[in-house]
């Protein structure tokens, strides 16, 4: 087992899309999505810097199957920036589904960054919209604050966490994923494949227990 890692003042915890619509009962629920909340709340105590992200879609967003007559959720269609998975309407701006989970302790978050608010561009990564050109502003914020390492937690491992990890690497950050603070949409084989590809790229996978500071 990898030894304990204590985040320093140049480390940020990125809490990705822990919203009602991605948890059980939501419009696009990730299996056991709510189980990440107590883990995130625990590990947050180890970090001086915390950023939270939210999917924040306008009505009739390009990623909604309802915006494309004759198409159904989970079909893939071509759009201006490439292939787009069509999703059920979710995380609509101002809706209860778009709200952060009520049991997520967001009091110490320094920034809440919203993504996917451009009607014609979806956004998985916390760093770039899916056209791969439009930044969310997160990179600039972290750089200006002196961050060099990011720890990712949240939903879903195979989409927003994955793309965020890949982009963070490409931007020059050291990247860790707190594995038990994430859940995915896909099956076990698909998630294992994504995990392997991230590890090969340089992402470190950790358990939350490796981040908990010993009691004083």
TL;DR?
The protein is an alpha/beta fold and 216 residues long. The protein has helices spanning 36-43, 138-144, 157-170, 188-201, and strands at residues 11-16, 50-55, 76-79, 82-85, 111-115, 149-155, 174-183, 204-206. The chain has a single domain (11-57, 97-210), classed as Isochorismatase-like (Rossmann fold, 3-Layer(aba) Sandwich), CATH 3.40.50.
Task: From the structure above, extract its key features.
six-stranded parallel sheet; Rossmann fold; two-stranded antiparallel ribbon; 216 residues; 8 strands
Overview of this protein structure:
With 216 residues, this protein is an alpha/beta fold. It has a single domain, classed as Isochorismatase-like (Rossmann fold). Helices cover 20% and strands 21% of the residues. It is built from four helices and eight strands; from the N terminus they run E-H-E-E-E-E-H-E-H-E-H-E. The strands form two sheets. It has a six-stranded parallel beta sheet with strand order 5-2-1-6-7-8. The longest helix has 14 residues. It is globular and about 50 Å long. The model has no long low-confidence stretch (mean pLDDT 95).
């Amino acid at each position: 087992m990898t030894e304990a890692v204590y985040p320093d003042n140049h480390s940020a915890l990125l809490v990705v899309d822990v919203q009602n619509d991605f948890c059980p009962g939501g419009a696009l629920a990730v299996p056991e999505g709510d189980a990440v909340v107590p883990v995130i709340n625990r590990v947050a105590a180890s970090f001086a810097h915390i950023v939270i992200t939210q999917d924040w879609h306008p009505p009739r967003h390009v990623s909604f199957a309802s915006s494309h007559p004759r198409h159904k959720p989970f079909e893939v269609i071509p759009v201006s920036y490439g292939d787009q998975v069509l999703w059920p309407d979710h995380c609509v701006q101002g809706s209860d589904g778009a709200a952060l989970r009520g049991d997520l302790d967001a009091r110490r978050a320094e920034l809440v960054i919203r993504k996917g608010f451009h009607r014609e561009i979806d956004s998985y990564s916390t760093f770039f919209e899916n056209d791969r050109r439009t930044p969310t502003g997160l990179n600039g914020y972290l750089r200006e604050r002196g961050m060099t390492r990011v720890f990712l937690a949240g939903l879903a491992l195979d989409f927003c966490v994955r793309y965020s990890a890949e982009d963070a690497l490409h931007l020059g950050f050291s990247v860790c994923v707190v594995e038990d603070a994430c859940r995915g949409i896909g099956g076990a084989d698909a998630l294992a494949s994504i995990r392997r590809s991230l590890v090969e790229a340089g992402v470190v996978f950790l358990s939350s227990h490796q981040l908990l500071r010993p009691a004083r």
